[in-house]
Amino acid sequence: MRVLLVDDEVELVSAMAERLGYRGLDADWTDNGEDAIRMAAETEYAVAVLDMKMPRMGGLELREKLAFHHPGMRFIFLSGHGSESDFKAGCAAGCSYLIKPIQLEDLVDMIREVVGEELS
């Protein structure tokens, strides 16, 4: 399964991609929405993990654009600036949501859950 990680915190997102790889998930990453859209046009991702707050294009707007072109893609939102309104907006879009700092195992479990894989 391929996972697309999008977060403007480069050190965080690159480390997350590397650590997901150690757990058997192929993860690509970028720090902006424009690159994420280009990457998704070139590669089929099962799940996109999107930061809610990013410069130029936030996670909700990016989700709309990705979902339009990739209706089977599943989404998980991450936020370090969690608020109840962000949570409700994320959930209203039918997505899962984690508040930073996250435990990588929680993210792995959520990725497997949104694609319908059994958790081990």
UniProtKB/TrEMBL annotation:
Pfam families attached to this UniProt entry: Response_reg
Q: Which residue numbers delimit the Response regulatory domain?
A: 2-115
Q: Which domain of life is it from?
A: Bacteria
Q: Which InterPro entries match?
A: CheY-like_superfamily (IPR011006), Sig_transdc_resp-reg_receiver (IPR001789), WalR-like (IPR039420)
Keywords (alphabetical) are: DNA-binding, Phosphoprotein, Two-component regulatory system
Q: Which of the residues bear the PTM 4-aspartylphosphate?
A: D51
Question: Under which name does UniProt file this protein?
Answer: Response regulatory domain-containing protein
Give the source species: Pseudodesulfovibrio portus
The organism's lineage is: Bacteria, Pseudomonadati, Thermodesulfobacteriota, Desulfovibrionia, Desulfovibrionales
